[in-house]
Design goal:
Layout lengths: L3 H14 L5 H14 L9 H13 L4 H20 L24 H8 L6 H11 L3 H5 L6 E2 L4 E4 L8 E4 L2 H12 L2 E2 L2 E2 L5 E2 L2 E2 L2 H14 L9 H12 L4 H8 L4 H6 L5 H16 L1
Antiparallel strand pairs: 1-2, 2-3, 4-5, 6-7
Helix pairs in contact: 1-2, 1-4, 2-4, 3-4, 6-8, 6-10, 10-11
Length: 281
């Protein structure tokens, strides 16, 4: 009889194989196993999930943490379904909360961090800054997805479930050209665009390098995900329409794009100054 614990273990193994070996994922799945691990897969229902949510709320967990547990459970069950281990999925409730971070990078802050990163970690950061792509998308990029002749990257799938293309121009093309020159390792060629001796760079390994660089730069709170918000903000400020900006960053819905509140103090100041000039005319 398959249990939720079996599904969680299989999902954890799949994440590790994909290079996601962080302790945060392991601890979340371990907690889920404690709460629901002995339950037969076939009997999991929405009420069980709601009871878990209520228990976590009673234990004082933040809504974002509780929602994270539900999201990981849903992801594990969907993986089990794809593997033929789960026949049907229950409804997974969502908690309402506002947790959108609002950090941005200025150009000098980016340079302070990136110059403290060694290759190829520096180009991973540059690609994130230039595109607003998710770290997982960048680290998982293969040469089979790069068409250097036509100057495009074709991403067949992403977190939002849809593929997209990215034109390679200017700094983005230069990054890809550098990585192309760095494909060889020994007598072989890496299938990964960003690699260490032919091996895909794991999130954990990049995170260790990123954390050290931001600390050395005196910017200990900067997140890689801030590149995503920054790219969106700067494209909108440059006059790029929302739809095009979303195509570049990979946001599927306008609500998620706007959830970042793509603005900053400078934009508000310009807007208020324009209002004052209009009224004074």
């Amino acid at each position: 009889m398959k249990t939720i614990g079996h599904i969680l273990s299989a999902y954890r193994a799949s994440r590790q194989q994909a290079g996601c070996k962080g302790q945060s994922i392991a601890s979340v799945l371990k907690d889920l196993a404690v709460r629901l691990g002995d339950k037969p897969v076939s009997s999991l229902c929405t009420q069980d999930i709601e009871q878990m949510v209520a228990a976590m709320q009673a234990e004082g967990y933040k809504p974002s943490t509780t929602q994270g547990r539900v999201s990981y459970l849903r992801a594990a069950m969907r993986y089990g379904q794809r593997c033929g281990l789960v026949n049907s999925l229950p409804y997974f409730p969502s908690l309402k909360f506002h947790n959108a971070r609002q950090g941005f990078f200025e150009a000098d802050e980016f340079e302070r961090i990136v110059r403290r990163l060694s290759p190829p970690f520096d180009d991973v950061a540059r690609f994130g800054y230039e595109t607003g792509w998710r770290l997982s998308e960048i680290l998982g990029l293969r040469w089979s997805q790069v068409d250097r002749q036509h100057g495009v990257i074709a991403l067949p799938d992403s977190k939002n479930g849809q593929g997209r293309i990215l034109p390679l121009r200017n700094g983005r093309a230069e990054i890809i050209d550098r990585q192309w020159q760095g494909r060889p390792y020994g007598d072989a060629l890496s299938q990964w665009v960003f690699h260490i001796r032919g091996q895909r760079i794991t999130r954990d390994r990049f995170w260790r390098m990123w954390k050290a660089a931001r600390e050395a730069a005196g910017l200990p709170n900067k997140l890689f995900h801030d590149f995503r918000r920054t790219a969106a903000r700067d494209m909108v400020a440059a006059g790029v329409d929302y739809h095009t900006a979303m195509q570049v960053t990979g946001h599927r819905t306008m609500s998620m794009f706007l959830r970042y509140q793509i603005t900053d103090m400078r934009g508000m100041i310009r807007g208020l100054d324009a209002l004052d000039r209009h009224r004074a005319a």
